[in-house]
Structures are given as structure tokens and as C-alpha cells.
Amino acid sequence: MTDRFDVSGKIALVTGASSGLGRHFATVLAAGGAKVAVAARRMERLEDLVAQIKAAGGEALAVQMDVTKAASVEAGRAAIQAHFASPVEIIVNNSGLSREAYFMSMTEEDFDTVIETNLKGVWLVAKAFAGALAASGKPGSIINTASITALRVAKTLLAYSASKAAVDHMTRTMALEMARYGVRVNALAPGYFHTEINAEALEGPGGAAMLKHIPMRRFGEYEELSGPLLLLASDAGSFMTGSTIVVDGGHILTPL
Fold this sequence. Notes:
Oligomer: single chain
Distance between the termini: 37 Å
CATH class: Alpha Beta
CATH superfamily: NAD(P)-binding Rossmann-like Domain
Mean pLDDT: 94
Number of domains: 1
Largest sheet: 7 strands, parallel
Strand order of the largest sheet: 3-2-1-4-5-6-7
Number of strands: 7
């Protein structure tokens, strides 16, 4: 049974890999035997991650990529495919950011920045890499990072929640269209885990109050996303497409 979760020899891409969940996803896939391309705008952080993966016996490549720009995404795709001499088979769409504000006070610039990165970026990456995968005739898996805010309401996160809700729905549309090519498309919807985006909020009074609404009374540990990630990335999830897996300690069972 454990062999079903094996990703040895697969070519994987993780966007937003310079920190947080993306960095963790990359190390999990590398530890599972995948050859991992890590992408983000902060190249020095990516190079540090590649060094860490190689020190642990893995294989990795750092690629600078701005997911909001089609030319940057395509350049990254070409570089990765040339390096590994194969199209990417596991695509983890993880780039994301947030701008917290009540919707009446949110600026147009902040709104556009969130939507461009969290929604348009997912579409551009999926389009470029899934297109190359479909053309090759190889099966594969796309894993989009959604959020529990896509499924329930949270104040001051209008653009972020809207972008993640769109990613959740876009995942199902992509899944329907890509099934004929043997490419599965699913999403992970994490609850609250400490990241650079939310660290300050979770460590303050608001974080303490939030814990009271999480049935398990704690925030998530990164390792608790490893199993769901490998399920979707590997043959263990071979009959799953269009699914969103929620990993949140039961948080969406109560009002956010």
C-alpha cells in the first residue's frame, strides 16, 4: 500500500516555494523521490532550499518565476523541461499572498495584486504546464492551494477569500477538461498554519481568539499536510479529480 504514495522519479513543480507551505511541499516531494523544480521571485531563498534538498540526497532546481506574467511562466516551464528532459508531471500551484482590509477601505491596487497572484497566477501556471503535459501524452496531477476562506466567510479578507473561492471552483473546471488527457486536478484547502502571511496575526490576541473556534484547539503543523499532498500527487489518488481536501482541525465546522 505504501508504494501507492511513491513519487520516485516524477518531475514536480512547486510555485511559491521560497517560504511557508510551498517550501514544505517541495521538501516532502523531494523526500518522496521526486525531482523538484522550485519557483518564486526570491531566488536567494530558492537556492537555499535547493541546497537543503540536495544535502538530504534529493534533486532540485531553482527557477525564478513571476506567476502573474505569462512570459515568466513560460520561460520557467521551458527551463525546467530542458533541465529534466521531461515535462513536469506534478504541478503544485501554491503562490499566494493576502492584503487584509475591510472591503470599503481596500485599495484597488491591493485588490488587483491579490487577484493577479492568487487567481490569475494559478491559471497561467496550470495552462502552461498542463498544456505541455497533455501534449506529451503522460499522465499527471495538478494540485491547487485553496483555503478554508474559500468555503466560509472571514472578515477583512475579501480579495483573498474571493481569489481562493475562485481557485476552488476553477479546480473543478480544470479537472473536467483535463480528465481526457489523464491529468487529475485537485485542491488542498488548508486551515490556519503559521506562514509569513499570517504569523503576526496568529501570534497576537486575534490568534488566541481564533483557537476557540477550532474544534481541535490548535493551529496546524506543516507535516499534517504531507499526507494529503502525497495522496493527490501519487497513484494513491489515481481516481480523484475535482476534489478539494480540507485540512483544518474542523475549523469550517464552526463560524470563522
